[in-house]
Amino acid sequence: MSIYEGIRHIRAIPRRCTDPTWNYAVLGAAFVFEGSSFGIARRQFRGGRGSTPFWKALRLSKDPTTDTVLAEDSAALIGLLIAAAGIALSHRYAMPELAAPPRC
Asked: Which has the closest alpha carbon to 37: 12, 69, 60?
């Protein structure tokens, strides 16, 4: 079913976004939640590494849970920024192809 829905959305003609306010509200809330989780993981990682440089501490770390949460939250925050940029560009240039979601 998800493959069918994905193909259906890719083939659909995107609609022009007239008011992206809710898109930004949802992305902003997601950014706050992911950012708080990232902050907690970063604080935990920094507490365990002491004066060791970041990359060396990451390589030598024995706690995969903190490393995994830190990496996942970093990727999620970058993805949210890319989605917001796509929506902003889509709205600014009236090109719905640039928007992250298939419809606004």
From this structure: 69
Q: What is the largest CA-CA distance in the chain?
A: 54
State residue 69's pLDDT score: 85
Could you give the CA distance from residue 50 to residue 81 in angstroms, rounded to a whole number?
30
**73-94: burial string, b at 16+ Cβ within 10 Å, e else:** beebbeebeebbebbeebbeee
3-state secondary structure string, 8-52? Answer: HHHHCCCCCCCCCHHHHHHHHHHHHHHHHHHHHHHHHHHHHHCCC
Structure tokens at 81: 């920024």
pTM: predicted TM-score of the whole model, two decimal places: 0.71
CB-CB contact of 104 with 20 (8 Å): yes
